[in-house]
Amino acid sequence: MYSKNVPTSFPKDFLWGGATAANQIEGAWNIDGKGLTTAEVVKKAENHHTLTMNDVTKKSLQEAIDDKTDVNYPKRRGVDFYHHYKEDIAMLAEMGFKAFRLSIAWARIFPKGDETQPNEKGLEFYDRVFEECHKHGIEPVVTISHYEMPLNLTLKQNGWASRETISEFTKYTRVLFNRYKEIVKYWMTFNEINAIQGGFTGTGALDSQLSVSEKAQVRFQALHHQFVASALAVEQCHKIDPQAKIGCMLARMQTYAKTSDPKDVRAAQFQDQLNLFYTDVQVRGEYPEYMNRYFKENNVELKMVEGDEAILKQGKVDYLAFSYYMSNVTSAKQDVEKFSDTFIAGESNPYLETSDWGWQIDPVGLRVSLNEFWDRYRVPLFVVENGLGAVDELTHDGKVHDQYRIDYLRKHVIQMKEAIKDGVDLIGYTTWGPIDLISASTSEMSKRYGFIYVDQDDSGNGSLKRIRKDSFFWYKQVIASNGDKLE
Q1: Domain span at residue 246?
Q2: What is the CATH number of the domain that holds 121?
Q3: In total, how many domains does the chain have?
Q4: Which of 286, 385, 393, 444 is catalytic?
Q5: Is residue 118 part of a domain?
Q6: Structural domain includes residue 8
Q7: Which among 172, 318, 157 is positioned nearest to 235, based on CA atoms?
Q8: Over pLDDT 70: what percentage of the chain?
Q9: C-alpha 17: how far from its chain's center?
Q10: Is residue 7 part of a domain?
Q11: How far is 485 from 467, CA to CA, in rounded Å?
């Protein structure tokens, strides 16, 4: 009779922690030799539901370059982690963090992207950050490119639309792997690589003036260049630091059929394939067959050079990391087989609640996704973003009672534990924004995710004082109990 023990909880070496991005926390956008990035030319939104992350044109780009302030460009100021990193990491350590996911600002290392030598002051900053992490027993988990690149590469060669960007990226990654050998154990190449579907933030390419068909061509060609660059970086990492692990990172969009109508089921299946296509390439090392028809029907002709397919096969990632915030509902009416430049799309699900920003809350969908990833790929999985963006209010006595965030996270932790019982190999969980930061999609400060409140408003006013929220103490308990104490 076949019998095997079923896991009952999280692994003993589970990587509990939180995740951030350089362009959302660091600030110090124009000091110590740092260059301007693509993230720092995106204007802040006028309201909660206006997504500005891809709203960049030649005109708005020039306006941003001419503007030497951070008034309209909050990612230039972040929450000043550049000068507060010791305090911030100490607070993460107080919560018991095992891992801290952060990104390196490419333009701190190569300000214009095309220099022959790196900026030593930029490297020294991350020397200090990693030293501080290790002092507190925190494993740095590093994203190499998180929604930003040196703006000069956009001006010079239209970002990732140019194949020349591959060599600039691999020059950058080679410097990182050599500098931080045996210091950084976990790497990721591109944050939410499927963000290329939305345009500028993912590609660094200006294409707003193009037709839908032309946009598809530019964006998928840019993606191919990223795939090749990622695969080459994986090979570099394995050669320079064989003990390190390097993964890919996807924005997971779990999709359900609106009804049991087979046409709706097929629409949901294909929408899911479009989401998993990115990880199919990076984990399996090849383009999946189902994309051939999609490319043909959307007039996309990828330009590959000899050897590209071999590079993809050789540069398969060690683990699959992903963000999970919501799920989608799809019907045949949406015609998902036609290219859409909307990164997040779908119909409302009547069975789910929504956040203040209209994101549908679906903890069970996380378990569904974990099982689907494990069944499909059989590589270690890492939930590197999950959290609730909300308007947090300070009480008269200077506290933040964010029970809604605790409830949200608890439900997702429960579903991760269920997935582990299902047999999923899950290595870690880093919630998004352990400290309040600038929103990626709207550049707001008022959309808060953190366990730590930062005294700063959407206009940049405030003392930058760090304040522990109720969720800070809750997450500390979760980590100390390895996910057993969730109340």
Answers
A1: 15-480
A2: 3.20.20.80
A3: 1
A4: 385
A5: yes
A6: no
A7: 318
A8: 98
A9: 15
A10: no
A11: 23
